[in-house]
Design goal:
With about 150 residues, this protein is mostly helical. Helix content is about 60%, strand content about 5%. The protein contains eight helices and four strands. α3 crosses α4 (about 50-60), α4 crosses α5 and α5 (about 75-95) crosses α8. The longest helix has 21 residues, at about 75-95. GO terms for molecular function: calcium ion binding. This is EF-hand domain-containing protein.
């Protein structure tokens, strides 16, 4: 998945420093999810998708501290755009708008994702995506699968 992030630009070091200084309110050298949510809604409203933001936050938190450090910040910024793109693709598949995709939704939406699949090919891919075997693909599973492809 980290390889896929290379397609998403990072703001310049000066811009990153400005953002960091502005949103590290208490100067503790870490950003909480609430601080990052505020940053995205104010600076990048076009990427304001809570599901994608949470996924990007978890992905960028390499040290597992529950906070984003200054070192992790460039990865976070890049990840927000990446996961927003995946959230948009997932929403295209989720015809019922229930935040999960069943096989019929995947099959119907695959061509919109540029996938020309036979029914059997679609079933194989869907089963691989459905990590827990529950018959439904959740956003987390979709991201994990797409990260392996890209």
């Amino acid at each position: 998945m980290r390889e896929a992030l290379k397609d998403y630009p990072v703001p310049s070091k000066v811009e990153l420093q400005h953002l960091w200084s502005r949103y590290d309110f208490n100067g503790n050298g870490m950003l909480s999810l609430a601080e990052i949510d505020k940053l995205v809604s104010e600076e990048y409203p076009e990427y304001d998708n809570k599901q994608a933001l949470l996924r990007a936050y978890k992905f960028a938190d390499v040290d597992g501290s529950g906070f984003i450090t200054k070192r992790e910040f460039p990865t976070l910024v890049r990840s927000i755009a990446y996961f927003k793109g995946l959230a948009d693709e997932f929403a295209e598949l989720d015809a019922s708008h229930d935040r999960r995709v069943d096989f019929s939704e995947f099959r119907a939406g695959a061509p919109r994702m540029g996938l020309d699949l036979s029914d059997s090919e679609a079933r194989v891919i869907f089963r691989k995506m459905d990590a827990d075997g529950g018959g439904l693909v959740l956003f987390e599973e979709f991201c994990a699968f797409m990260g392996r492809l890209k």
